[in-house]
């Protein structure tokens, strides 16, 4: 039986998994749902055939939206089959070198030609390709592959891949947090399994998910959130197992001062629903019908008509009352769940023994940092990210004045990509201009201020006069 065990099972794509689609430098996070159409880079396809394949596999998108695993090809590229020129000085980019038109290429696609065959046709019908240098030919081939290749690579989500995805598509959602800065934050905050970490972020859940990934499902993560509820869109893209979410707690920032002052009430409210229900029932009880017999005539006809109308309206009234009761019960259940989450998070914070603090938000970090540092145990790290340095300079000055922190460092990160190819190694021309700024430090136990009387008592005693 042991021989039949698939050792690659954890690395295979399964239904309901969250995956990241990659094509060139473009990423997109999706969930694998059977028979669900996915649109990526102006192409649509189904992910059903990807189930059972290994992560990192590349697929061809065939007509009909079906994915087929791409087989490695040993054949040489079109550039290898052609001779090259010595320089590009006599080549004019006037748009007239290509003999094929857009209609010709569309006809090739309708005839079922593969992307390699279309690229070969473009090479053969280019009047300037043979005169280009070998490097220029490779660049031309690479450009055409990016445009005409119908391929997609499926990757397993990770903090690095998702950081690249968000920074490339919607950097404003993650406060322009670059992946190298994110890596430094996780290192400086000493995130590891079994620790208790406080996270305050407005980065669509990317930073929170990265902390949870680094902890591996062990320990406690307390998300301090502003507003009515936490935002965790990025956490879902990681596709964590269920036990990862058991370590995640949430606490609203608006209750921090009440928790520090000891006035936060997390006890369940007194159950007065039974009394109110009884009183409502007593108030809605219909009066007893009159004991006197109705007189014959028009009055009797009128009473019969009213009773018939009441019988018609009763089902609608009952259905409406049931909907109101169901909504009230649902609201009551949600409030009770919210209260329990608040109580569990408050119990973790009351010990004031957290192991780390990570902050990355669009809000001013100084008041948030000063309030949350009180929940950290002594000799614990904290990291604050900001896209601009001025807010962090204010935090640095405040910590220096107030005390309680040592080893304060304010630094910026700089990253430069290089193209590494034979005889063509140089920095990439287009790159990110800045990676933001980080303020890091370590908490220490501050001495309690002594009263003024005690300070005077500790001063040197006056000299006694010598008595002759």
UniProtKB/TrEMBL annotation:
Protein name as catalogued: tRNA (adenine(58)-N(1))-methyltransferase non-catalytic subunit TRM6
Ranges of biased composition (kind: Basic and acidic residues): 71-100, 314-338
Subcellular location(s) per record: Nucleus
Function: Substrate-binding subunit of tRNA (adenine-N1-)-methyltransferase, which catalyzes the formation of N1-methyladenine at position 58 (m1A58) in initiator methionyl-tRNA.
Region (Disordered): 65-100, 267-338, 449-468
Cellular compartments per GO CC: nucleus; tRNA (m1A) methyltransferase complex
InterPro entries: TRM6 (IPR017423)
Keywords of this entry: Nucleus, tRNA processing
Top-level division of the source organism's lineage: Eukaryota
Biological process, per Gene Ontology: tRNA methylation
Family of the protein in this entry: Belongs to the TRM6/GCD10 family.
Assembly information from the UniProt record: Heterotetramer.
């Amino acid at each position: 039986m042991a021989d039949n065990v698939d050792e690659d099972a954890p690395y295979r794509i399964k239904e309901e998994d969250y995956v990241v689609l990659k094509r060139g430098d473009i990423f997109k996070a999706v969930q694998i749902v059977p028979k669900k159409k996915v649109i990526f880079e102006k192409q649509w396809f189904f992910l059903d055939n990807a189930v059972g394949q290994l992560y990192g596999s590349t697929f061809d998108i065939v007509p009909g939206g079906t994915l087929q695993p791409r087989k490695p090809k040993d054949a040489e590229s079109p550039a290898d089959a052609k001779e090259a020129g010595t320089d590009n000085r006599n080549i004019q980019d006037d748009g007239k070198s290509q003999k094929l038109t857009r209609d010709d290429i569309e006809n090739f696609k309708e005839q079922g030609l593969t992307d390699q065959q279309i690229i070969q046709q473009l090479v053969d019908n280019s009047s300037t390709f043979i005169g280009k240098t070998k490097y220029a030919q490779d660049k031309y081939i690479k450009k055409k592959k990016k445009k005409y290749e119908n391929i997609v690579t499926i990757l397993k989500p990770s903090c690095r891949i998702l950081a690249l995805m968000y920074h490339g598509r919607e950097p404003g959602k993650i406060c322009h947090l670059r992946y190298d800065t994110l890596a430094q934050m996780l290192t400086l905050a000493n995130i590891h399994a079994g620790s208790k970490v406080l996270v305050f972020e407005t980065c669509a859940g990317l930073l929170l998910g990265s902390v949870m990934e680094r902890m591996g499902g062990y320990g406690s993560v307390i998300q301090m959130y502003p507003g009515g509820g936490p935002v965790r869109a990025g956490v879902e893209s990681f596709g964590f197992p269920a036990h990862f979410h058991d370590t995640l707690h949430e606490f609203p920032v608006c209750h921090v001062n009440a928790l520090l002052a000891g006035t936060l009430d997390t006890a369940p409210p007194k159950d007065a629903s039974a009394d109110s229900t009884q009183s409502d029932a007593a108030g809605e009880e219909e009066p007893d019908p009159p004991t006197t017999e109705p007189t014959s005539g028009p009055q009797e006809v009128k009473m019969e008509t009213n009773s018939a109308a009441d019988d018609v309206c009763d089902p609608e009234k009952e259905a409406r009352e049931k909907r109101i009761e169901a909504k009230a019960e649902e609201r009551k259940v949600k409030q009770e769940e919210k209260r329990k989450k608040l109580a569990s998070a408050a119990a973790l914070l009351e010990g004031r023994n957290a192991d780390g603090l990570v902050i990355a938000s669009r809000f001013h970090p100084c008041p948030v940092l000063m309030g949350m540092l009180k929940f950290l145990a002594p000799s614990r790290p904290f990291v604050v990210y900001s896209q601009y340095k001025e807010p962090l300079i204010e935090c640095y000055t405040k910590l220096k004045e107030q005390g309680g922190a040592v080893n304060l460092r304010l630094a910026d990160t700089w990253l430069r990509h290089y193209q590494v190819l034979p005889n063509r190694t140089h920095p990439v021309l287009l790159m990110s201009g800045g990676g933001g700024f980080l303020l890091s430090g370590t908490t220490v136990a501050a001495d309690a201020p002594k009263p003024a009387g005690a300070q005077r008592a500790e001063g040197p005693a006056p000299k006694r006069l010598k008595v002759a």
